[in-house]
């Protein structure tokens, strides 16, 4: 029987340790194609390249058996180029993105380039998962992730993912205690509160660095922040229909337009 | 009684005709502050600037009475800088973004810089609306929008917008027939199917232009694409909790993790 085709992308760039790990895991269960940004794209959200050109260059970063391409664009561009230029005849059975170096829980999903690659694939009906490790160290220990990522990817390949959904999987940083399991969660009600560090450049002009402080307002135990804090892997089904259906009635009732 | 404070941003850049129109309308009902990108940011999705510095420069583009700043970052950056640097003491009563030169109906909401400014504000609890004109001509006629934008902004100021929601408002291009009204809608089930136009640069190397073809699969009459096609203004309540709550149970039932 032929192996499934798995497309791997990320947002930290094709040379990061996270994608190297993810490619090595996916190669155990499928034929792998890698298309990933040629430079870090963190915080790019669901950006696409509309007013500029794109480059795509083949490389041997993952050995002779695994075709790999670096792309000048965003994670969403990578998925589009893979599906509509490189893979015209054979469609991927699964798209995975990551492993991101840093958490994409809660509201961070909106800013996440990792998840934009997964959501882009889901829009076109391909099962897709973004994996993030809650450790910002680019050399973080990540061998504790293997069994869980393989389990989730195998379930996606055999049972599929509900239509209109991409999975946002976050994994606790390595610690002495073993991970307690995988929790299907909702997105926590938390957000970033920004401060701006104002500085003066050598030419006497002001500039800013954005500093984000993550603030969790959520008291529930069914959300991704709780899961990570309690040493569970969080798995949030994310939809790309942003309609707040409950609000349609509210607006029709209360507004006079 | 003091006037409400209205923050205006966009994604086409601070010199576009769309933001000029939106500022002139908002100045009729509130005190206006403009913070908008110094260059076009179309397709930027919910990108933020995390690995680079930001610039913010005051200008007089909208006259002496309306403070205005151009920002080197994305639409989401503009809202963050406005709220957490420029406006530390007084919070805006309303954030509006646009008027975008081009449609942001259906799945385009995900790629939309216009809507990312509105959603960024909504995350922090401020009523927020993105306005888009379904006409890509940067010199498009837009006097037909005035009464509707004013009506929607006034309703938002007096009645508020449901918590967790930003409004995505799309307005049909100018035509001979008068607009039939405003419809509260859901996001249409449509998507972009991409093609890549491959070319060779003067140095003999390949590059690509992305070409998007919009394909509407939605047969309903309660969605934004239907509204625009039938000369209504569409108003979609968009949420930033991406959790597909229905899928939590499906995954818990069907998956073995």
Automatic annotation (TrEMBL), chains A, B:
<keyword id="KW-0963">Cytoplasm</keyword>
<dbReference type="InterPro" id="IPR030048">
    <property type="entry name" value="SurE"/>
</dbReference>
<protein>
    <recommendedName>
        <fullName>5'-nucleotidase SurE</fullName>
        <ecNumber>3.1.3.5</ecNumber>
    </recommendedName>
</protein>
<dbReference type="Pfam" id="PF01975">
    <property type="entry name" value="SurE"/>
</dbReference>
<keyword id="KW-0479">Metal-binding</keyword>
<dbReference type="GO" id="GO:0008254">
    <property type="term" value="F:3'-nucleotidase activity"/>
</dbReference>
<comment type="function">
    <text>Nucleotidase that shows phosphatase activity on nucleoside 5'-monophosphates.</text>
</comment>
<dbReference type="InterPro" id="IPR002828">
    <property type="entry name" value="SurE-like_Pase/nucleotidase"/>
</dbReference>
<keyword id="KW-0547">Nucleotide-binding</keyword>
<feature type="binding site">
    <location>
        <position position="12"/>
    </location>
    <ligand>
        <name>a divalent metal cation</name>
    </ligand>
</feature>
<comment type="similarity">
    <text>Belongs to the SurE nucleotidase family.</text>
</comment>
<dbReference type="InterPro" id="IPR036523">
    <property type="entry name" value="SurE-like_sf"/>
</dbReference>
<feature type="binding site">
    <location>
        <position position="42"/>
    </location>
    <ligand>
        <name>a divalent metal cation</name>
    </ligand>
</feature>
<feature type="binding site">
    <location>
        <position position="11"/>
    </location>
    <ligand>
        <name>a divalent metal cation</name>
    </ligand>
</feature>
<feature type="domain" description="Survival protein SurE-like phosphatase/nucleotidase">
    <location>
        <begin position="6"/>
        <end position="194"/>
    </location>
</feature>
<feature type="binding site">
    <location>
        <position position="100"/>
    </location>
    <ligand>
        <name>a divalent metal cation</name>
    </ligand>
</feature>
<keyword id="KW-0378">Hydrolase</keyword>
């Amino acid at each position: 029987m032929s192996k499934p085709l798995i497309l791997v992308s990320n947002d930290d760039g094709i040379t990061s340790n996270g994608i190297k790990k993810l490619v090595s895991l996916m190669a155990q269960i499928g034929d792998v194609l890698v298309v990933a940004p040629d430079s870090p794209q963190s915080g790019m959200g669901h950006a696409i390249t509309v007013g500029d050109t794109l480059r795509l260059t083949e490389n041997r970063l993952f050995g002779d058996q695994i075709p790999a391409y670096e792309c000048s664009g965003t994670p969403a561009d990578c998925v589009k180029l893979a599906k509509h230029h490189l893979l015209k005849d054979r469609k991927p059975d699964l798209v995975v993105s990551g492993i991101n170096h840093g958490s994409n829980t809660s509201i961070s999903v909106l800013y996440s380039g990792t998840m934009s690659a997964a959501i882009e694939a889901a829009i076109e009906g391909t099962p897709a998962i973004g994996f993030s490790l809650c450790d910002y160290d680019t050399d973080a220990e990540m061998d504790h992730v293997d069994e869980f990522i393989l389990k989730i990817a195998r379930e996606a390949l055999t049972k599929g993912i509900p239509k209109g959904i991409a999975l946002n999987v976050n994994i606790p940083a390595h610690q002495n205690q073993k991970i307690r399991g995988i929790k299907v969660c909702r997105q926590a009600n938390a957000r970033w509160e920004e401060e701006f560090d104002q500085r003066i450049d050598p030419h006497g002009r002001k500039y800013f660095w954005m500093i984000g402080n993550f603030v969790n307002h959520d008291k529930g135990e069914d959300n991704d922040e709780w899961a990570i804090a309690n040493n569970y892997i969080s798995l949030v089904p994310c939809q790309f229909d942003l309609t707040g259906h409950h609000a349609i009635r509210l607006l029709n009732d209360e507004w006079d337009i």
